[in-house]
Amino acid sequence: MGYGDKLFWLSVLIQRKYAQICAELDLTPMQATLLCAIKDEPKRMTYLAASLGMTKNALSQLVDRTERRDLVSRVGSEQDRRVIMLGVTPTGKVLADAVYAETAERLPDIAENLSADDQRDLERIATAVVDAADVPASARS
After folding, report:
1. Per-residue b or e along 37-63, where b marks 16 or more CB atoms closer than 10 Å to that residue's CB
2. What are the φ and ψ backbone dihedral angles of 87, each rounded to 5 degrees?
3. Which among 51, 29, 42 has a CA at the least distance from the CA of 102?
4. Measured between alpha carbons, how far is 1 from 29 in angstroms, rounded to an integer?
5. CB under 8 Å to 122, separation ≥6 — which residues?
6. What is the pLDDT of residue 5?
7. At residue 70, what are phi and psi to the nearest 5 degrees?
8. What pLDDT, on the 0 to 100 scale, is given for residue 81?
9. What's the per-residue H, E or C state across the chain?
10. By CB atoms within 10 Å of each CB, which of 25, 62, 88, 141 scores lowest?
């Protein structure tokens, strides 16, 4: 199995664990990701579409479904009324914090069979990959 294959299967393991956590909280992985992206402050819809790798139409549909559950709310920007900001509702904030905490606590389980040194190496490498990808610091809280 080549390097790309291994990264593919690592991605599958991570996605499977994340999907399990989301399902336990009655969220789809995309709803959970959306909530986590805006849990600390509202974000522009255009920014969210770009950062989540979604079309504006797909994001709007996701927001519609999530809004019907009273987890997010759209708000016009005070600076520019044409700009739509998306924020979490109090219920959405509770769920976003739960997803984030559960994921941070349980995702390392995928490496539980590694030695302590290998786990530290994986943490160091994961940090370097995230830093190189220019993920905003607010998204890494």
Report:
1. bbbbebbebeebbeeeebeeeebbebb
2. -130, 170
3. 29
4. 28
5. 111, 114
6. 95
7. 60, 40
8. 74
9. CCHHHHHHHHHHHHHHHHHHHHHHCCCCHHHHHHHHHHCCCCEEHHHHHHHHCCCHHHHHHHHHHHHHCCCEEEEECCCCCCCEEEEECHHHHHHHHHHHHHHHHHHHHHHCCCCHHHHHHHHHHHHHHHHHCCCCHHHHC
10. 141
| pLDDT in the model for residue 76 | 80
Give, rounded to a whole angstrom, the gap between the first and last alpha carbons of the chain.
34
